[in-house]
Amino acid sequence: MIRIKYSFWLVLLFSLVLTACGSKKYTIKSNTKAAKAADAMSNLKSKQLYKFITEWTGVKYRFGGMDKRGIDCSGFALMLEKEIYGVTLPRISREQANVVKRKSIDNLKEGDLVFFSFGGKDVDHVGVYLNNGFFVHASTNRGVIVDDLSQPAYQRVLVKSGSVN
């Protein structure tokens, strides 16, 4: 009988330990850049866009590149717009900016384009707006990545935003 009592208490103690360990919740800090980018991706209306971005994320930057061995920003925007929205864009970011109807940042919608001038006056970089201030682009240093448009580095060089339609 004593042996059964000890077995009961041993099983109960073991069960409590297991359930205590299993109840610990792990959360991601929602204020981190990665969490915010993940949130922007999860809020995409187009599941095709989500799939396209995840398939290309991390592909390295290569000037003039148009495949997964390397891609540049205008090539990425061109391919995304064609595959997801059926829109044909010129190959060069400066020419892409010329076919876009200007919109304020506050009025951008998923799939709109954002243009930057890192090297002076002319447009020399393009990205595709997602939502909540995030965009996807082929970064020269980090490859295809979802980034925060509100970062000062982007705000200083943002020269145009808008839609093709």
UniProtKB/TrEMBL annotation:
Keywords on record: Hydrolase, Protease, Signal, Thiol protease
UniProt-listed Pfam families: NLPC_P60
Keyword Ion transport: no
Record-annotated NlpC/P60 domain positions: 43-165
PROSITE patterns the record matches: NLPC_P60, PROKAR_LIPOPROTEIN
Keyword hit for Isomerase: no
Similarity remark: Belongs to the peptidase C40 family.
Protein's name according to its UniProt entry: C40 family peptidase
